[in-house]
Design a protein that fits this description.
- The protein has 10 helices and 7 strands.
- It is of the alpha+beta class.
- The chain has a 5-stranded mixed beta barrel.
- Helix 7 packs across helix 10 (195-206).
- 35% of the residues are buried.
């Protein structure tokens, strides 16, 4: 089974990418959020992989973060939730947000996810409340352009993401822009910057 995949991005689509590993192209199915945050064509990329084997096909589902893969596998244990629906759910909300909704029994929020009706949301909360508690976190992980940033709630990076979203940028786009800024500045300089500097540099990266 393929558990991880590291290579160069050969192409990107709406919900998938082809990764060139030593001359072999692997098609990886991704959430739309991961597509927005992953490195660009020609850049190096790393994915956590779930290999889904059926009689008629072998499909690789990819994730930028290990917690995304873990939640994906947990969601698939619920009756009626297959890999496509689990991935669609990860396209709608971040891991911490989904787990928080499950832990608090927030049916209304879960039903905003693609393909999730009230009964499915109720079943998710009943079946998974205890299983996802360890994934509820106050941190936000950003990845893009070969760089990863952990933005603690209330930090300059987290505030910059919020500001960019208020300006109309999608969540995944804002995260990817901050990750690119971190790569350009270096980890030490990035962590010491004020929120206004991060916003300005992120807007330059988006230009």
């Amino acid at each position: 089974m393929i558990a991880t995949l590291a290579g160069r991005v050969f192409s990107k689509g709406f919900d998938r990418a082809v990764v060139d590993v030593a001359g072999v192209g692997y098609e990886v199915i991704l959430s739309t959020d991961n597509v927005a945050r992953m490195p660009e064509k020609g850049e190096d990329a790393f994915f956590y992989i779930h290999t889904n084997v059926r009689e008629d096909a072998i499909t690789l589902f990819g994730f930028l973060e290990e917690q995304e893969k873990e939640l994906f596998l947990i969601l698939k244990t619920v009756s009626g939730i297959g890999p496509k629906l689990a991935l669609a759910m990860l396209s709608g909300l971040r891991v911490g947000e989904i787990c928080q909704a499950i832990s608090s029994g927030d049916i209304k929020r879960l039903t905003t996810l693609p393909g999730v009706g009230k009964r499915t949301a109720e079943r998710i909360c009943v079946d998974l409340k205890e299983k996802v508690s360890h994934l509820v976190s106050g941190t936000i992980s950003l990845q893009g352009g070969g760089s990863t940033v952990v933005a603690v709630e209330g930090s300059a990076a987290a505030d910059a993401i919020s500001a960019l979203m208020n300006l109309g940028y999608a969540d995944g786009v804002a995260r990817a822009a901050l990750a690119k800024v971190k790569k350009q500045l270096g980890e030490e300089d990035f962590s010491s910057q004020k929120v206004e500097v991060l916003i300005r540099e992120a807007l330059r990266a988006l230009a």
